[in-house]
User: What shape does this take?
Amino acid sequence: MTMSVDLMGIEKGFDGRPVLQGVDLRVEPGEVFALVGPSGVGKTTLLRCIDFLLRPDRGTIRYDGKEAPSDTSGQLALRRRIGMVAQNPFLFRGSAFYNVSYGLCVRDVGGPALEERTNAALDTVGLRDLSQAPVSRLSAGEAQRVAFARAIVVGPELLLLDEFTANLDPANVAQLEKAIGAYHRQTDATVLIVTHNLFQAKRVSRRAGLVLGGKIVEVDTADRFFSNPTDERTRAFVRGEMPY
Amino acid sequence: MAGDIFSIALLSLFVSATSTLLATLIAVPLGVTLGLREFGSQRLLRNILFTLYGLPPVLAGLLVFLLLSRSGPLGALGLLFTPVGMVIAQVVVVTPIILGITMSVVATMERRVKETAFVLGADRRQLSVTVLREAVAGILTAVMVGFGRAVGEVGAVFVVGGHIEGKTQVLTTSIITDIQQADYGHAVALGVILLVIAALVYSLLYRLQEKTLP
Assistant: This one.
């Protein structure tokens, strides 16, 4: 129930503007890894490359040591082992229950198993009472919790979280961080979290890395990364001296 | 007279509703498929469809007439001057409208709908179904526009149906002949019936559309 990811020389640009400029990174199986950095340095692009939403211009991504299969069914099987929550997730028209159960439905899970697993995921984020509420009536925090439940309900081995608590109030942030911890403990899944929030990165991650200019500047254990980084740019970033 | 008007109104409703339904069955799956895909000649296809929006119904009627006429390729079917022939003519007129709008609705739908379904593990078919579900309000608008075109259409049904008394008379062609005979009162009465039919169908479609809104 866990997956390693190896990024080797990942490059990606848009309209001639380079965004990722040779990213090398290994995320160990079962760890919670935080990727921090200012806006526009390519953190989201990197996650989108890992989740097949973008194709890197150059470089290799290995999942559990293997490159992604080139055939559609092989790629679909791999995609289904990965979950992702975006900063502003799109919720489908309908209820919270419908949204959370979507991933199970597309995997042909039905009947009591679907109901049980959906309700369990809603419990994880404290939204069981709102399971039948139309998503249009949910607050931003509740909507984000639905998106998180929707991602974990299928038990992804790799969970990608892209600034998923940005703009939320502290209560919702705390609830979601608790949910990450609970999911990680239960499944030992690998979690790669992109965040602006240094305090959050410190709270949830075992290792952390800084991205600047489309490259990884420094990777270390969370303790060393935040208390005694080796690179001058990381020091400036964790001290808050670098605007972001 | 009242019986005549009733049968004329009923045939109008039958021809318009059946042709809209058939056009929907053809155009919606095709529109969703084309809207989801990105291909080189997409702009060309869109331009062709937009051009067909303006296809003069009388020209569409002429093409169907030539197809169904005794010497035409489908002449043996004996569909000229029948309600079925009129339905075929209207399908030709309405399909590009529903297809074009559906394609635009799907293509311009928030990219995030497709991405979300993709990220959650949907395969290609499931992704299409999800987009269709999210786009249903827009697609119903396409159907409403298509029905509006069908129910108010006169040229194609006149050419293909022939306005034969008791057989292929519909409200719009009857209004035209009433005007030609200066029977304006009758023409206005038929016009009111046409509007009532349109209002009833639209209220039904609008209710459906309301249910699909978030």
